Amino acid sequence: MGTEAAEQHRLDEAHPNRAAWKKWGPYLSERQWGTVREDYSDNGDAWNYFTHDQARSRAYRWGEDGLGGISDDHQVLCFALALWNGRDPILKERAFGLANSEGNHGEDVKEYYFYLDSTPTHSYMKYLYKYPQAAYPYEELVATNRGRGKHEAEYELQDTGVFDDNRYFDVFVEYAKAAPDDILVRMTVFNRGPETASLDLLPTLWFRNTWSQPGGGSKPILERVGTAGPATVRARHTDPLFLESLGDYELHCDADVPLLFTENETNNARLFGGHNASAYVKDGIHEFIVHGNTDTVNPQQQGTKVAAHYRLDIGSGQSRQIRLRLAASAPGASAQPFEDFDAVFAARLKEADAFYAAVTPPAVRDDPDRASVMRQALAGMLWTKQYFYYDLDLWLDEHGAGSQLPQSERRRVRNTEWAHMFNDDIISMPDKWEYPWYAAWDLAFHMIPLGMVDPDFAKQQLDLMLRNDYLHPNGQLPAYEWNFGDVNPPVHAWATMQLYLIDKERRGGIGDIEFLKYAFSKLLVNFTWWVNRKDRTGANVFEGGFLGLDNIGVFDRSSPLPTGGYLDQADGTAWMVFFSQQMLRIAVELALQEPLYEEFVEKFFQHTLFIAGAMDRVGERQDEMWDEEDGFFYDVLRLPDGSATRLKVRSIVGLLPLAAVAVFEEDILAKLPKFSERARQFLARHPELAANMHLPQEPGVANRRMLAIVNEKKLRRILARMLDESEFFSPHGLRALSRSHLEHPYVFQHAGQEYRVAYVPGDSDSGMFGGNSNWRGPVWMPINFLLYTSLLRLYAYFGEDFKVECPTGSGQMKTLLEVAKELGERLSRIFLRGGDGGRPAYGADPRFRDDPHWRELVQFHEYFHGDTGAGIGASHQTGWTGCVARIIQINAVLTKELLLMPGAEAAAARALHGRAKGAEPKTTPTNRA
């Protein structure tokens, strides 16, 4: 088999389960402590119930964490990196960060680690951790950040001086699979400092503690194999249930190094003053390494947690490498675990290069920095998969809130209405440290970049959220573990349709109709939930609360309003038009295969018109969202006395209606004659709905038809504000709040109290929603991506004749394709090196600009400073920020000729799928050792 096809062949084998290539992957969390699942407190204070300080000594209940680690797909057996520099007060087994109450801007990881590479089957993976040689400044980070205010910058690890004079280790961890159950591990440590330095390197293998729980089954065992030769550990579970998913494994070391055994069990004596059943507990290896306590590791060479102890002395600028192999049986007939080690690694890396060469367009391959950013973005997406286990029925029982108890006896705890949920899956996470739990609307965006490299996994993830053990019986999609009942924007149907189109071209133009039918059937239930629960008056005007946009509004939109009354939300209503349009698009695709679905085409056409029409009725009124004077959409506050007023905050909420665009090819109406006739009759009965919208009767380029909230006049007015650099159009994408509010904050007075919304381009200056998120000025990738793709659809309809000034006031007239590409380039430039060698995402940090050991490394933050592009929030949220990979790809491939030809959507998908056939792989800076 050719190198280029090898990874695709593994994907093809994995999908129908012919070979379990995805059985092992980067499924450990970066942080299991401080999560809702591990919270058994009386007051729901998850952060303080299970702290970082306890994590080394306390066995987890629901999952495991580690540095650069892997596990099987049920996290029975885990492997990760542990380190000690001879100075730290604790063994470095997991990433440290601030709890929500400790940070001046909420929780925040205080480490430097990077996901450098991964194939979709994890046949090759690479990770980098930067470990200071000085004592890690735990107390200094907590005290300094806790002492800073909301208007001050966070105090970061670099600020402490621990990286001065380059006194740190670069620790690379690489994985290569010789077979689905045969994983090779290579750890390479570089001393970047000026002097020889020592390091204890402890690759660690352990079983997740299931046996300590009621009904958890029997205890597994790790034990040394033999007494002579290179160290080997056998991992064997003894419980029949776990043996069904995981057989015996052996961990082979490349030297006869000491093996330190203990148990993955809680040190009750240290934490609670209680009694330990054994002298060997979870922190036993820490005690042995850091404090020299020889009584805390088992001389019998057995347990449920083991570390191979490599003691390395590394000269300045030098490196040391160790090799390990974790396999289901002795690899190879010769029983020489490392005989083919180098050859397998070389082959997997070559195959990874070939796979990404085929994904990367030629124009991007010719720009190594851009190609590296794209590959690291996709690697980050693949590394942030996590095993997520949460049995809500059991968890509620353990909290005294189970459904078998009388209502009056149940404790008040979170998520009591979600007892049906049983999560036991590998799920794409936003950020495995800051957000080590799934969020439904984040996940929808994740599937766009993941669909570029593994459409089968992406489809499975979208289906997962619609399964009966996730989707609420009433039709609501789960939000996130802190409150599954919160309301996220309804983007699932959009992601489903986008992924269907990506996958359709991969399948030679034949769509996966069964995938689409299943999603549509479940999304019908979800759509009905929205209509029944979030349209208070039945007037097609929707609420929804914060809708993922946290502090964007005048008030906390998830809480009762201080004024009384309620909000008609421009974003809630626009999201519902968007949802309805995507359901319309799905129904059209299904109706072309099965006439039964033509009835649903009519249903969602009518829904779309009714909801869009409610945003701007005929005539000028103060109780509708469109403001004719400003040319913008706003939320409407409806007061208890029946009056209403617009809340004139110019935010991305008012731009969202631009995303509600559906474009259809000329022949669609002819293929659906029943719908076409009923649509004509419907519009004849409701001429008021046609007045302020763009309807399909008007043909565009190639006789395409378009259904959009805004007509051409409104579109031009909104675009004039959106492309104004003094308002939304920053050098690095669209701001969430107009910069005009810097000098002109929006102020609302009520009962002697002032409510103010001002432009804040960086970290939040309030504690709303935890204080670690800010939608009042920064650039957020998900909404930018929606508007970017909307501009492309609008161009496919309007073509070359529709031009707007871009930027507003510049005198430069551009087509909407040129506008889209300009927006895409501004978003891409966040991560690309500029003329000074720096990347805007890192601000003015000289180390990331100049140092050869830092400047090629890219992190994908949660959001970005509205003026400088500096990364803010979760620093490893490749999640939706990973959409930049798709933007880089689209910008390099789509042309006006493609988008103006008949069948443009299919042609564009074909071009993106077949973009780099026969491409020669290139080595990018980050996949070199």
What's the arrangement of secondary structure elements?
Blueprint: H1 3-14, E1 24-25, H2 46-49, H3 52-55, E2 67-72, E3 77-81, E4 83-84, E5 97-98, E6 108-109, E7 113-118, E8 124-132, H4 138-147, E9 168-179, E10 182-191, E11 197-201, E12 204-207, E13 221-224, E14 232-236, H5 240-243, E15 249-253, E16 259-262, H6 268-272, H7 284-291, E17 302-303, E18 305-308, E19 310-314, E20 319-327, H8 341-359, H9 362-365, H10 368-383, E21 385-391, H11 392-398, E22 422-428, H12 440-453, H13 455-466, H14 492-506, H15 513-534, E23 566-568, H16 570-591, H17 598-615, E24 626-627, E25 632-633, E26 635-638, E27 644-647, E28 661-664, H18 667-671, H19 673-685, H20 687-690, E29 705-708, H21 712-722, E30 729-730, E31 733-734, E32 746-750, E33 753-757, H22 781-798, E34 803-805, E35 813-815, H23 816-828, H24 846-850, E36 863-864, E37 871-872, H25 878-881, H26 883-893, H27 896-900, H28 904-913
Antiparallel strand pairs: 1-2, 2-3, 3-12, 4-11, 5-6, 7-8, 8-9, 9-10, 10-20, 11-19, 12-18, 13-14, 13-17, 14-15, 15-20, 16-18, 21-22, 23-26, 24-25, 26-27, 28-29, 30-31, 32-33, 34-35, 36-37
Helix pairs in contact: 1-8, 10-26, 12-13, 12-14, 12-26, 13-14, 13-15, 14-15, 14-16, 14-28, 15-16, 16-17, 17-19, 22-23, 23-26
